[in-house]
Structure formats: structure tokens, C-alpha cells
């Protein structure tokens, strides 16, 4: 399985902040979806805590083909110190099937902030689904790492009973 490392650009600005910038070219060839891709949106909240190793967790809602789907976020990376709370929204591109949203998203991240600020991140998973996230952050945090975030759709009550398949 080939993973792509995309790029993240984070700039935090407020009372006290240190902007960070990192752009890493994709490390694998572009993949072309077999069916026409559908663009969709998402909203999320997330927290990150770090004491050497950083851990991120959160939840959100994906709007896809006129329906809403809850999802969870979990993962992390190395070289992280501090705590931030994140609220964000974004677009999802190259999502041909809902099941392709579930996956491990990779990015390279460098950030330093104290107070509040904003940021933008671009992540991509093993199915070629790309997330462009716009975030508002609160807290004090420093990190520089390769991040691995797992986005997982939460089964609906019908799916949990086994009545519906995605």
C-alpha cells in the first residue's frame, strides 16, 4: 500500500505567535479515481496534547450527497509539546465512494503558537481522498512532525444493527 505525504501550512497569529510554514511535495504519483469524484464538506473539533509524542483526537460531521455522517479523528506524531483546541471546516475532494473517506491521512506539520490563530492543512489518505482543512486554534503548542491521523465514520444505528451496508 502506497501512502502519500501531502503538505500542511499552519500560521498562528494572535497576541503571541510564531508562524510556521512547511511545504513537502507529494511523494507518490497522482492517482485518478475510477469514477467521477464528488466534492463535499466537513466540520470538526479536535484537541492535541504533546509531551514529546503528540496525540490528536476529535469528532466531526461529513456532508456527502445530501446526508450527514458523523466521524471520529485520532492519531498523532513525534516532537510535540503543549495543548491546543481546534475548530475547523473544509472540503473533501476525490471522494468517489463514502467508504473511501475512512482511512489514514498523512501530512507533515510544523507549528508554533501561543494564544489563538488560524491554519490550513492539506491531507491525503491511501484512497487518494484529499482534505483541505481551515482551522481556528486556541492554546500553546510547538510541534514538528510527520502526522498520521485516522478518520473513521461512525456507524448509523441502522448500520450498527447490520440493516444497511455503505
What does the model show?
This protein has one helix spanning 157-161, and strands at 8-11, 16-18, 20-21, 38-64, 67-95, 103-125, 130-153. The protein has 166 residues and is mainly beta. Strands 1, 2, 3, 4, 5, 6 and 7 form a seven-stranded antiparallel beta sheet that branches. The protein is elongated and about 40 Å long. Mean pLDDT is 78; it is low at 1-33. Residues 1-28 form the signal peptide.
Structural class: mainly beta
Low-confidence segments, ≥5 residues, pLDDT <50?
Answer: 1-33
CATH architecture: Beta Barrel
- Overall, the morphology is elongated
* CATH topology tier name: Lipocalin
The main β sheet shows up as: 7 strands, antiparallel
Helical fraction equals under 10%
What's the N-to-C terminus distance? 23 Å
Q: How many structurally independent domains?
A: 1
Radius of gyration: 16 Å
What is the percentage of strand-forming residues?
over 45%
Count of strand segments: 7
Give the class-level CATH name.
Mainly Beta
The overall average pLDDT, rounded, is: 78
Q: What's the order of the H and E elements?
A: EEEEEEEH
Helix run count: 1
Signal peptide: 1-28
Keywords: Signal
What are the main properties of this structure?
3% helix; elongated; mainly beta; signal; disordered N terminus; 7 strands; 7-stranded antiparallel beta sheet; Lipocalin
Amino acid at each position: 500500500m502506497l501512502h502519500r505525504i501531502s503538505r500542511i501550512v499552519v500560521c498562528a497569529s494572535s497576541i503571541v505567535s510564531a508562524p510556521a510554514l512547511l511545504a513537502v511535495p507529494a511523494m507518490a504519483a497522482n492517482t485518478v479515481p475510477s469514477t467521477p469524484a464528488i466534492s463535499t464538506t466537513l466540520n470538526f473539533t479536535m484537541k492535541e496534547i504533546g509531551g514529546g509524542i503528540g496525540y490528536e483526537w476529535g469528532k466531526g460531521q461529513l456532508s456527502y450527497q445530501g446526508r450527514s455522517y458523523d466521524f471520529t479523528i485520532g492519531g498523532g506524531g513525534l516532537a510535540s509539546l503543549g495543548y491546543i483546541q481546534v475548530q475547523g471546516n473544509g472540503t473533501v475532494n476525490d471522494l468517489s465512494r463514502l467508504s473511501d473517506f475512512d482511512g489514514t491521512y498523512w501530512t507533515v506539520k510544523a507549528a508554533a503558537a501561543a494564544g489563538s490563530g488560524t491554519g490550513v492543512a492539506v491531507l491525503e489518505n491511501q484512497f487518494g481522498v484529499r482534505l483541505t482543512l481551515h482551522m481556528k486554534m486556541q492554546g500553546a503548542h510547538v510541534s514538528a512532525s510527520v502526522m498520521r491521523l485516522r478518520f473513521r465514520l461512525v456507524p448509523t444505528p441502522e448500520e450498527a444493527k447490520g440493516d444497511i451496508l455503505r
